[in-house]
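Contributing new complexes? Match this layout with SN-glycerol-3-phosphate.
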Amino acid sequence: MKIFIDTADVDEIRKYAKLGILDGVTTNPALIAKSGRDIKDVLNEIASIVDGPVSGEVVSLDADSMVREARILAKLHDNMVVKLPANLAGFEALHRVSAEGIKTNFTLVYTSNQALLAAKLGATFVSPFVGRLDVTSTGGSELVREMATIFKNYEFETQILAASMRTAVYVKEAALAGAHVATIPPNVLSDMINSELSDLALKGFLAEWDAMPDENKTLFK
Ligand code: G3P
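Output block (do not edit by hand):
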């Protein structure tokens, strides 16, 4: 499964890019606003840090304006992927920009039928909002499982990008359910990496090492 980071904070992106675990980045209008920076600057900087898909989202509500913004976003960098919302105008815009070869991330997806239609229209990614679905009802991970079955049944090339990963458990469940990608906020990536048990065991090993005589530690001198 590919790992994207879900943030517009370039310091956090740099921190995890250094580990070699990032395959891409997703942003949304709220995350850009949180960065406190101009959208053009922040997307360009993100694309210079991570060599992989970078999602930027349109902010208009009518199809013509979405198509216009999609073209602007796509021109920023070869790796740009345009996020379009799951609504009537979003489907029309998806249809139109797919024909232009613009890479897309059909976002705010809450049902398998929305995903099926987006895949038929050639979306590059579809983003089920797993965590948000669980907040209002249940079945976020089940939604990913359904989508994986549907995409397999019809050999769609569209990738399932599990989004709204609010805990590390969601990431594990997305992987088990067959998501191609999970986009993960920095705090959840941190939870995936660190374990108090690992730290405790390491502390025990090093205490015994420290107690060993110096003449037996020549390798690292
Ligand atoms: O970027 C889209 C999505 O991952 C948002 O997550 O935590 O705001 O539901 P969240």
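Reviewers usually confirm one structural detail per submission. For this one: DSSP finds eleven helices and eight strands in the chain.
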